[in-house]
Structures are given as C-alpha cells and as structure tokens.
C-alpha cells in the first residue's frame, strides 16, 4: 500500500490529509482561532462535586467547566502496577467526594474536546506522547501497542520498557517503536521526563485555573504520531511548514527526511491533485454512493450516529440474496473509510440490508472488523442486535469533520428542516385574526416571503377577500425576497388611506425603470417586477427576465399593479 501524507498551509488554516493508494482516508484542519485542547494540561479548580453522578466539574479557564469522572480522578499507588489508567481494584473504590473537594486545585489533562453543549472531559491520569513511548507520570503500568503483532517483539519491548520505567511512573510502547533499540527508546524517555519536570514546575507556581502545557500544533502531531516507516512520502506545499517538518525530523527521525517533498507545482493545488477537496465535500454530504450503485446514508444526532445501507441503483443479475450480500460487503469498506474521513466517534448503529443467511451475516461482520483495523482510532464492534442492527463504538477525542467545517443552519437551527409555506401562511393568518381583535386601525400592512404571500392572497385574491371579511379590516400583503419563509414583518396599522399609500408605492400614470425578476406563472408572456415588495405585472415582458426596462403604470390594485412597456422617449413625454 502506498501511504502518503499531504500538508497544506495558508494564512487562514493548516490542513493535513492522509492518502492510501491515492484515496483520502483521514483529514485534519487547524485554525489559529480554533486550536484544539485535547492533550493539553491545566491546573484546574474543583467547583461542583456531584455524588449522584460520581463526578465533578473543574474550572480550567474555558467557557464551560470540564467534566471529571470518578475513575479519572483516582490516582493509584505502586500496588496498582497491573492496572491500566482509569481501572481500579474493587477494594480501592472510593466516592468522588472522598477523592476531591470543592475548591481543591488539581492537575488535569483534556482527553475529549468540548462539543456542543458539553464541556471538555478531563483526567488526572496525565499521558505525554513521544515518538516511541507514552509517559504516564501518575500510574505504574507498562503496556505495548496492540498493533505490534509479533509475540517476541512485544516481549522484547516490554522488557526494555520495564527496565527503563521510572519508579512510580508508567510507559506505553507505541507502534512506531517496533524494531527500535533500547538507546532510541531511552532518548525518547529522557525527553519526556524533562517535559514532565517543566510541567510540574509550572504547576507549582501557577494559580488555578491556568493552562500549564499546550499540546503540539497539527503539523508536529502528524509528524510525531503518523509519519513513520510505513509512510511512502510526505508532500508539503508551504515553505515554512516544509522547513518546520525537516527540523522536527532532525530531532526524532532523521532517516525519514528524504521522504519529505516540497510541492511547488503551479496550477494544480496539492489537495486537488489527490482528490482531497472532492473527498471532503463528499464527506459533508448525508448520502455516499457506492461503486456498484448502492449507497449509504449517514445521520448524526447528539447521542449517536446512524448509518443506513441501501441497494439503490444496484439490482444485481438474478439472485436477490447475493445482491444484498455484495452491497453490504461493499458498504463495509465505505463505512470504515467514512468514519475515518469524517472522524465520527461515539456510538454508531449500522442498518445493513436484511440478510437471511447466517454465513452472509458473519461474513459482513468480519469484513467490517477487517476494514476497521486500518483505523488508528480505537473501534469496537459489539455485534448484531435483535433487530439485526450492528452496534459499534469509535473513540471520540476531537470534533468531527462537519463540526469543524460547518455551523448549525440559522434558519432551521440545525434540524435540517423548515416550516412549509402552507404552515407559515396558516400561522400568519391566525396572527392577523388575533391582531384584528385588539387593533383599532382600519387597515393592516404585512410583509412576508413571496411564496407565503401567494398563499395568503389566493387565486384571484380569494383568500385575502375572505380574510378581510372575517376581520372587517382592509389587509395589504406585500412579498419580499429578503424575508425567509417563516418571517413576517408588520409594517403598518392605521387609517386605510395612510396604509394604502405605504402598501402601493406607485400610482396610475407613473413611469419608472424596473427589473423583470421572473415570468408570470400563468401568463408566461408577461413579466413580474417589484417595487418595495409591491408586485407589478408588466405586459409582454416575459422574455426580459434579469433585464431592466421602462414601464408606465396602467392600473393599481390591492395586491398588484399592471403596467406596459414604453420607449425611453415616450416615457419622457409621458412624464411631462
């Protein structure tokens, strides 16, 4: 497999894409204004201890307080060497109130970014990742990355780690350490120990809440965590970033420097060359097509992500069960890819197309697990539910791609749906009836979206006449393209002649220049123009959409005016 890392940096953001066999599989973006907090270390102050939740909230100086769960607050001693961070013996079970007190200052590390309405999640189990090792200063534990499969190599690395491990601290050997010497691991550990000394010194003199240590920027993290011997090359399109990468490799992996290439080609941007821009755009879409003609639909909620698999245009040749099986197998590959590319975490439910064959079901589960093994982020497939849905989880640390690149729609507030024109028209009609009961004026002028105005007025003004009959008032409704479908603006209530002047800004005989916005819906030969939202039906202007023309108003009505086109010379004469 050809594995490449692409780095693109400009004034506004730094972007990194990981490409496998020319297919983008991971994408990261970092902006100066939105630098993530995951991995950063704070001196925080305990504010609220919640015995019922066995957790507490910690003020770390951010907008929202961080959340600390009891298992992440417990600091084990030497006797817990066999236990991983966050796990405790049953005999050591203490309540959150026994571990921390309100007002207490504690050192915590962000393990999960603040997302939505929730603040960041933190832990007292600090971990400092290096090139080959992860130092855990608060726990006594030695572990080796599960991705190192060779048993003898795992045992060798574990022996080295146990020999190097400082008293009272823990070490995890990273995947990239496979085949490395004890001296290389020792040098990495010495760097991490010096870093921990600096962090400890800062924490002793700081006053909570305070940022003690900020994790490295995106490019540095990628070089540290992703750039290894399995990477074919790294392409960088920015001179400053290129020099930065070379300088970092000088310190951590000089043997990889010749794999870094400065991309200078004019005309075709680096991300366009590899199809990254197109892949990211697709990753923001709800629907993703499969090569066979099937497709998957990805829907996210606050609690979980649901993925639905459909055959779509793929109908197979003759065997329905085989068609379903092939679509589901293809979907496994695409689902695993989309989870990485979109960086979706948390609970994930997959609704594969129903299969009756147990062999097919097992094969699909095996295929999904096989594809997920390519993902560095921890994933767990829990199996099929009674309804035939696949349950799985993927560790969530940072915001997903859509959360980074998009924001909730200001119209629908993130729901993805808005009220229909009919619903809004009915609501406005009720509001008019309510206003008419309390308002003393003879007439009312409302401005609404043109589509809503059309419904309120009705064919030939029938709905408007009926509404006037019910209210006993003259009602003027004006359409405005600047208003959203659900918006309504009450412009005037008062005497009929005064409101009429505001509602009808033109008079018979007026000559003016108008823009033909659209053709008349029932008389395509005529054009529609608007003056302050007031509709003007221009005879014979249906083919002038998007153009300006001189017209003379022939007649004015409550909902519209009629006009005819005039030559510029004739218009001047008429104006006299």
Summarize the structure.
With 576 residues, the chain is α+β, with helices and mostly antiparallel strands. It is built from 16 helices and 30 strands.
Structure description:
By secondary structure, the chain is α+β, with helices and mostly antiparallel strands. The chain folds into 6 domains: 3-34 and 218-276, eRF1 domain 2 (Nucleotidyltransferase, domain 5); 40-125, OB fold (Dihydrolipoamide Acetyltransferase, E2P) (Beta Barrel); 127-209, no CATH class; 285-405, no CATH class; 421-503, Ribonuclease E, catalytic domain (Hypothetical Protein Ychn, Chain: A), CATH 3.40.1260.20; 510-565, Beta Barrel (OB fold (Dihydrolipoamide Acetyltransferase, E2P)), CATH 2.40.50.140. The chain has 16 helices and 30 strands. The strands form 6 sheets. Strands 4, 5, 6, 7, 8 and 13 form a 6-stranded antiparallel sheet that branches. It has a 6-stranded mixed sheet with strand order 16-17-18-19-21-20, covered by helices on one side. The model is unreliable at 78-83 (pLDDT under 50).
């Amino acid at each position: 497999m050809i594995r490449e890392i692409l780095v693109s940096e400009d004034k506004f953001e730094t972007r990194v894409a990981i490409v496998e066999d020319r297919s983008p599989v991971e994408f990261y973006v970092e902006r100066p204004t939105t630098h993530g907090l995951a991995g950063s270390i704070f001196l925080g102050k305990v504010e609220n201890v919640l015995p019922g939740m066995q957790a507490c909230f910690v003020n770390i100086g951010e907008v929202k307080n961080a959340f600390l769960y009891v298992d992440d607050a417990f600091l084990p001693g030497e006797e817990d060497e066999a236990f991983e961070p966050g796990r405790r013996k049953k005999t050591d079970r203490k309540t959150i109130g026994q571990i921390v007190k309100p007002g207490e200052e504690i050192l915590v590390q962000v393990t999960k970014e603040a997302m939505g309405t929730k603040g960041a999640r933190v832990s007292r189990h600090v971990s400092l990742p290096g090139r080959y090792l992860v130092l855990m200063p608060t726990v006594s534990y030695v572990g080796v990355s599960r991705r190192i499969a060779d048993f003898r190599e795992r045992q060798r690395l574990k022996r080295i780690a146990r020999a190097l491990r400082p008293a009272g601290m823990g070490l995890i050997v990273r995947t990239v350490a496979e085949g490395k010497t004890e001296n290389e691991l020792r040098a990495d550990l010495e760097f991490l120990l010096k870093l921990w000394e600096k962090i400890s010194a800062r924490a002793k003199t700081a006053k909570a809440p305070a940022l003690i240590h900020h994790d490295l920027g995106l490019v540095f993290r990628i070089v540290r965590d992703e750039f290894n011997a399995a990477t074919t090359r790294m392409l960088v399109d920015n001179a400053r970033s290129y020099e930065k990468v070379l300088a970092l490799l000088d310190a951590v992996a000089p043997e990889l420097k010749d794999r870094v290439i400065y991309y200078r080609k004019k005309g075709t941007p680096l991300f366009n060359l590899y199809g990254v821009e197109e892949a990211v755009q697709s990753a923001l879409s709800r629907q993703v097509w499969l090569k066979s003609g099937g497709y998957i639909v990805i829907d996210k909620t606050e609690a979980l992500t649901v993925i639905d698999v459909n055959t779509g245009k793929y109908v197979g040749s003759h065997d329905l069960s085989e068609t379903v099986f092939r679509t589901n197998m293809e979907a496994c590959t695409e689902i695993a890819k989309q989870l990485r590319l979109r960086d979706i975490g948390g609970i994930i439910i997959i609704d594969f197309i129903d299969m009756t064959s147990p062999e097919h079901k097992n094969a699909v589960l095996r295929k999904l697990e096989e594809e997920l093994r390519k993902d560095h982020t921890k994933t767990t497939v829990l199996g099929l539910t009674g309804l035939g849905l696949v349950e799985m989880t993927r560790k969530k640390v940072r915001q997903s791609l859509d959360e980074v690149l998009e924001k909730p729609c200001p119209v629908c507030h993130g729901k993805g749906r808005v009220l229909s024109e009919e619903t809004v028209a009915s609501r406005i009609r009720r509001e008019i009836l309510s206003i008419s009961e309390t308002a003393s004026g003879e007439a009312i002028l409302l401005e609404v979206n043109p589509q809503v105005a059309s419904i309120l007025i009705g064919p030939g003004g029938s709905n408007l006449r009926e509404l006037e009959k019910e209210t006993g008032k003259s009602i003027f409704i004006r359409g405005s393209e600047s208003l959203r479908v659900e918006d309504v603006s009450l412009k005037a209530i008062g005497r009929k002649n005064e409101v009429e002047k505001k509602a009808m800004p033109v008079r018979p005989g007026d000559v003016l220049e108008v823009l033909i916005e659209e053709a008349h819906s029932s008389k395509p030969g005529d054009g529609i123009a608007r003056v302050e939202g007031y509709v003007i039906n221009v005879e014979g202007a249906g083919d002038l959409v998007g153009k300006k023309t001189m017209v003379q108003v022939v007649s004015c009505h409550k909902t519209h005016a009629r006009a005819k086109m005039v030559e510029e010379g004739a218009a001047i004469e008429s104006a006299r």
